[in-house]
Design brief:
It contains 15 helices and 7 strands. The protein is α+β, with helices and mostly antiparallel strands. The two termini are 60 Å apart.
Length: 363
């Protein structure tokens, strides 16, 4: 409880310190700034950040190579700046109001917050009973006093938030700090998909053929593609992310790519989950069950091309910050892993795809 009191006191001290510092600055007061004032330009995507002989490396190239880690850091930096900006605005508003009333910041805060901070006897009794086990060691008098101080501190903190909100409404405050764009999935197109290639929406899945959660997801995806309206509107693109902990998953991914070269990816994809023997003999049997041309299949497995495709998918996963399977992205935005078709519908709620399907099925 004393921790809350200290925290509230720090807030008051910070406001006073910031307000004092800002009062001596040469910048415009709150509400008088013009859009764009004091905003530092950020490097353009086209900015050249390095040269290797005659080859230029641009900011966009660097960010693409670093992957989603850059976007994550930008989001954290924005959160830090946003918090600092709001603190600065609050401090400036408090200083402005204190000057208007010919008071110091401390005097203004005492005036606005003091009267509303006294807790009632009902509140003290309620919190004393709720925290009796934690406070009984210091006795009833000491415990009730602790409760009173804590309630008083919470009241002052709540009133401070209300007062700062009130000051913002009374002044012309415009937040011009722009949030970074949410990172979008960046993957190259491929021919390894379920559903129709010309569908208007795309569900991209990074998966591993020996991942139990990927296997559990398969019936959900099959139900989605059988659902009236969905099958013609959603394309499920499969990206391979064989994890090192799964011994045969890389070879299974290569086998799926080879099946895709015979236009048999969907059936091979299904069978690789059903038949978990991903040894050479196991993959051969699965390929035969899928109806593949075995000479072509064996020739493909012996080549480097399908391995390069799988490695390219793994590199795309790294650049997009994907580390677990299955990872799902709907129209380039990450979505929560669903357990069943109803959950998948819920995840897609509000998307144009779901609205269109709902409209058609109700006819």
């Amino acid at each position: 409880m004393p921790r809350t009191i200290v925290a509230t006191s720090i807030v008051f001290l910070a406001l006073s310190t910031w307000a004092t510092a800002l009062s001596g600055s040469q910048g415009e007061t709150a509400g008088t700034g013009k859009p764009g004032d004091n905003i530092s330009p950020t490097p353009a995507d086209s900015a050249v950040v390095a040269r290797v002989d005659s080859i230029e490396i641009r900011q966009s190239d660097l960010d693409a190579y670093a992957g989603r880690e850059v976007a994550s850091l930008e989001q954290k930096l924005y959160a830090l700046r946003s918090q600092a900006l709001n603190n600065m605005i609050d401090a400036r508003l408090v200083q402005k109001e204190a000057s208007r009333q010919h008071l110091t910041v401390d005097q203004l805060l005492d005036k606005e917050l003091g009267a509303s901070s006294t807790p009632s006897e009902v509140e003290i009794e309620r919190d004393w009973e709720s925290n009796y086990d934690a406070l009984r060691a210091i006795g009833e008098v000491g415990g009730r006093y602790q409760v009173m101080l804590d309630l008083e501190s919470r009241h002052r903190a709540a009133r401070l938030r209300e007062y700062l909100t009130q000051l913002r409404k009374q002044n012309n405050v415009a937040i011009l700090l722009r949030a970074p764009e949410s990172p979008k999935l960046q993957v190259s197109p491929n021919t390894f998909f379920l559903g129709q290639n010309d569908a208007g929406s795309e569900l991209v899945i990074f998966q591993d053929y020996e991942c139990p959660f990927c296997r559990q997801l398969e019936p959900v995806l099959e139900s989605l593609l059988k659902d009236q309206g969905f099958s013609s509107r959603v394309k499920i693109t499969i990206k391979q992310l064989p994890l090192s902990m799964h011994k045969g998953s890389f070879d299974a991914a290569v086998a799926a790519v080879c099946a895709g070269q015979q236009q048999a990816f969907p059936i091979m994809h299904k069978l690789l989950f059903e038949n978990q023997n991903h040894t050479e003999d196991g993959l051969t049997k699965t390929a035969m069950e899928a109806g593949l041309s075995m000479p072509a299949f064996r020739s493909c497995l012996a080549g480097d091309a399908p391995r390069r495709i799988v490695l390219a998918d793994m590199e795309e996963a790294r650049k997009n910050g994907v580390q677990a399977t299955p990872s799902l992205f709907f129209n380039n935005d990450p979505i929560v892993l669903p357990n069943n078709l109803d959950e998948l519908r819920t995840v897609l709620q509000g998307k144009s795809l779901l609205r269109e399907v709902a409209s058609e099925t109700s006819k």
